[in-house]
Design goal:
The chain is about 30% helix and about 15% strand. It is an alpha/beta fold. A hairpin with a 6-residue loop joins strand 13 (about 420) and strand 14. The radius of gyration is 23 Å and the shape is globular. The relative contact order is 0.20.
Amino acid sequence: MSCFQFDSPLSPSRRSWLQTTGCGFGALAFQAFAQQIASAAQGPYSFPTLHHTPKAKRVIFLFMHGGVSQVDSFDPKPQLKKYHGKDVPIPSPPGLEAAKKGQNGKVMDSHWAFRQHGQSGAWISDLWPHLQQHADDLCFIKSMHTRGTSHGQAVSMIHTGNDNLPRPSVGSWISYGLGAANENLPAFVSVTPPAGHGGARNYGASFLPAHHQATALGHSQSKANDVKIAYLQRAAQNSTSTEQLRQLDLLRQLNGQHLAQTQDSQVEGVIQSYELAYRMQGIAPDLLDISAETEATQQMYGLDQKETKEFGRRCLLARRFCEAGVRYIQVSTPYVWDQHGGLVKGHTKNALSVDKPIAGLLADLKQRGLMEDTLVVWGTEFGRTPIAQGKDGRDHNPVGFTVWLSGAGVKPGYSHGATDEFGYYAQQDKVHMHDLHATILHLLGIDHERLTYRYAGRDFRLTDVYGEVVQDILA
């Protein structure tokens, strides 16, 4: 069972109401209106009972799909220059190409210069010129490690906390634990989620009730004009609201009968998804329309430039969903960061497309006062090795890489943990992916050990039986 209690013992549960009521969607509309009045009386953010006072009300997760090189971005290692072209004097992790060949590999120096920025003196390479301007807003974790040398395993780990079995995604757990802050929007939105390496599993609800799955906007290969919510429009162009209500009422009755027969929580989730889709028709189109944003705001996100306009629009949508009350917004790049060869060309192109939009997002959140209760998490499934693969590439590195956080509840201008002198292995104050997930939940007011769901005879949680909150990074 969940640690949260949603149904009052003094009133019928949502499930029993759906099974027994004969009033149809007219009653649904009235109930929604009554709930809006109650929510307004409690303030714009009405949380269920939390385990402790939250620092953050929402999370924006920026996922760089493919594996960003930490030794070319945020983790400078002078030894790479000293040993460039020579054998690395430490063994390669099992499963990687060099280890399979019984070799350690040749060290490859970074192509980009590192400099210290801001009052914090944070090290950021010239690959990220716009992010450099926000050095004092960032909290780096430079000692990340995870499970899985393959993309499928590691992508699943960062999104669901498990490297091989279907499990609920992070956003689904947050939706389950906190519920929706805006009744007319989902608690979890995934903007252009990964099309491969797990696909829908990366934003799915698995065994949690189905309505906790993300509402997806396109997929990672979508162009800017295709980033929209599928099937949100009415079935027929001439369909009126009255006709649609009658159709939905009939659908509710049929689904309600099936729910009464099966007692299947997934059926209830489908019922709720139809209700939410109907309510979203009145608010989502305006949220997706960025034409009302000022020219200065659009330029801040890079919408006026060919290289940055697509990811810029995704980041701008994340801010708009953030303002509207969505709990967890996931924004993904395409699968473009996997440079086993051509790393200089590939990373240069990729960073150019996201650097300005991400900096624009941080600046926009800050100027609107949203950073005070918004947690931004930048991550990648794993890093890259300090050794060369081929002429100009790096292999996967799950045993030492970097993520950064910014905003509510974390220390700004702070660096936690360290890899070895080559940037290969997490060595000091190691942080596992389970620890990162535990920390995100903690900042939202949730104890990761107490947020559980009983399925198949046991209690499951996002962090399985692992995970510790990274206390050192908390403000």
